[in-house]
Amino acid sequence: MKRSTLWILSGVAAAALLAGGARWASLRKTAVETTKTSTPVATQIELSASDVVKAQKMDMVLGLPVSGTLKASQSAMVKARVTGELMDLVVREGDLVKAGQTIARIDPTEYQARERQAKQQADAAQAQVEIAQKQFDNNKALVDQGFISQTALQNSAASLNGAKATHMAAVAALDVTRKALDDAIIRSPISGQIAQRLAQPGERMGLDARIVEVVNLSQLELEAALPAADAGLVRAGMKAQLKVEGIDEPVAAKVLRINPAAQAGSRSVLVYLGVAGQDGLRQGLFAEGSLGTRTVQALAVPLSSVRTDKPQPYVQVVDGEQVRHVTVQTGTRAEKTLKNITLTWVEVQGLAEGAQVLTASAGAVREGTLVKFTAGVR
Q1: Angle at the Cα of 311 from the Cα atoms of 306 and 313, rounded to 5 degrees
Q2: Is 91 domain-assigned?
Q3: Residue ranges of the CusB-like beta-barrel domain (predicted)?
Q4: Are 377 and 52 in contact (CB under 8 A)?
């Protein structure tokens, strides 16, 4: 090969190497610039006093959750004790009644007639007793004088005893008819209010037909079912705080008694909590709350500050100048009022006392976000 040809080929190869190196350098520079451009720039948010709360120790009541329906400790379903037409039922739902107050009547015509019949039969039986008694006295005198035999006296004594038994049976029948006549008058067995009116005047009432329901709201009860393991911690007199639907303020309650037997199937134990009657409380309202067993001091934050949009619950903590997500374990909850604001606080583990935690008003903040406080917050 000629020398000139070799020089030409060498020049072409060198030119190709130079062009490739230049292209590689250009691509590397472009990649670096792209990487710098795509790197997110840390944002910054401004926090006010309402956006931050400190994790602090407070007294937390360790309690058992309870729920159920309120019912009056005293209630009575007034039923018809005799059959007949209902008369003079004037009470309606909400009316106040007293124990023994007449609230209705069953038509007494039939029972008055039965009473008169039974009384006449008792009077007739009494007359037979008097006749038998005189016969016995006469025969006894004749026996003493020796005019009749002892057998005749025994027969007259038997007739007297039979007449007395018949009279006693007639008197008992008279008592039954008088009881039925008295049962025709419907009286309230307890003092309270009419909760239900289940019949109307003029209706034919059968035996045990329901007429009205009376409830006494001065004392109510909550029947709560607890697992057997938790029920062993409960004692009579323990306090509880209940949230009743329709009532803004918490309602105080205490354990009145504990059922000695577990429920079949669920094996739960029924605990009965007493609630003093007050305005707004009604039978049938749903209530739930916590039955306190003991009080401990624990580190707590507002429940609304605990976020659950990750696999594990966490809180957003201001660490230096940025936000950090700290995983926590939650425990007991309690209603606490601080600075005239009532919040539900929850016991947390995994957080340092005094840590500045973002409240719910701050919303979700990305970890690593820079923060700036308004004047006077820190």
Answers
A1: 15
A2: no
A3: 222-293
A4: yes
The residue behind tokens 């729920």 is 67
Nearest to 168 by CA among 206, 208, 128: 128
Q: Give me the domain span that covers residue 317.
A: 44-55+306-373
Global model pTM greater than 0.85: no
> Which amino acid is present at 369?
T
**In b/e form, how buried is each residue of 4-30, taking b as 16+ CB within 10 angstroms?**
eeeeeeeeeeeeeeeeeeeeeeeeeee
**Spans of the chain below 70 pLDDT:** 1-42, 293-294, 339, 375-378
Q: Has residue 343 been placed in a domain? A: yes
CATH number at residue 363: 2.40.420
Domain count of the chain?
Answer: 1
Residue 25 lies in a domain: no
The answer to whether residues 198 and 52 touch, using CB atoms and an 8 Å cutoff, is no
d(CA 139, CA 143): 6
Tell me, what amino acid is at 99?
A
Output the average pLDDT for the chain.
85
- Residue 313: the pLDDT is 92
pLDDT computed for residue 362 by the predictor: 84
